[in-house]
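ARCHIVE CARD
Drawer: 12
Card no.: 0347
Subject: one protein chain, sequence and derived structure
Cross-reference: see card 0346
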Amino acid sequence: MNVRRLALGLMAMSLSVAHAQEQAGRTAVPAQIDALYPGLREVYIDLHRNPELAFQETRTAALLAEKLRALGFEVTTGVGRTGVVAILKNGNGPTVMMRTEIDALPVAEKTGLPFASTVTAQNANGQTVPVMHACGHDAHMTAWLGTATVMAQNRSRWRGTLMLVGQPAEESLSGARAMLADGLFTRFPKPDYALSLHDDDTMPAGTIGYRAGLFRAMSDAVTITVYGRGGHSAMPHNTVDPVVLASRIVLALQTIVSRENNPVDPVVITVGAIQGGTQGNVIPDEVRLLLSVRTYSEAVRTKTLAAIRRVVRGEAIAANAPKEPRVDAPERGNAMVHNDPALIDRLVTALRRELGQAKVVEMPQKMTSEDFAEYALAGVPSALLHIGAVEAADLARSRESGIPLPAPHSSEWAPVLEPTLKGAIHAEVAALLELFARR
């Protein structure tokens, strides 16, 4: 009997010590993040000042690779052209992938920040464009580096292989496919789980948003080319004006959403660019329209693309265009992001335990797209989480007034840095430690 009591006492003591160690570890992580923050802020400023477009991220990749090597990671660059893969092996256990995007957007910055980007670059069409981290990828990368540092400093708390992926060309929805085609899951360990985190304009800074199942829409980049007969602007009767034709098409396309689609099946058709002409007194021969089409089912996607082709052809006939218009759409669009429900449940439990119940909230589906979807299609249970990046007071005023705040892809988008960055690192570390925990 005494032996049994002694054994039970030792077991209770062991559990108490383990609990105390776990609690100490939880307390240590925020303190570690606080200590890292000043250096990480300087990294963020550097990345923000020096954005690079899709598949041009050579400086960015080199900076990330240098810092990861210094932490003891095995680093490979040039994966999928400009991507980075960093591996930290820490005993037997699962392989967990944490991805960040590394590219920026062709947007002229208007944030007024003292370290605002003034960078210009040539895009894929050879045009000189302004460049800005208008989607927060600079914050994502900085948090990713902070998470790498905390995980390297806390190797006694986990076992397994941490796989960090710096992915290029997310904004063109082509970087994930490029990395997979270059052997991301064959040259390197295929992960048991894949994670990523994205900043968000709809939640207070530091709040984590999640959604199980379908979360982000599929996306198609559609290019329409309409043909006219050019001539002098003073003699339009001798021409077929493709600018007017293109304008009619922009308006007509919106009726597909408002009058042909079932309102409960979401569709977005956005014309983001109209390209044509050289000066005001010349009517050009052709005009191009660049579209983004978002849908949530293959049936709606197929119907929408067919309707676009029909509307474009009909408007060209009505304008007496001399040539059939051209509509270029991919055979396969960018896939929908599907968050693995079991993985989300596990992460939410861990995040609420670590960050607090109020800091982890369910969020609605979004019509935005993400090529993070490709990793789930490759057979890896995946979870894309969001982190709020705006001041709570500003968000409350916006909701009251109905005037939206700047959001990702806006020239004025700038996350509230400190709570966003610290919250992102804390959440990423908590998620990783949960997935590396022995079951």
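Annotation on reverse: Residues 255 and 261 are 9 Å apart (CA to CA). The chain is about 40% helix and 25% strand.
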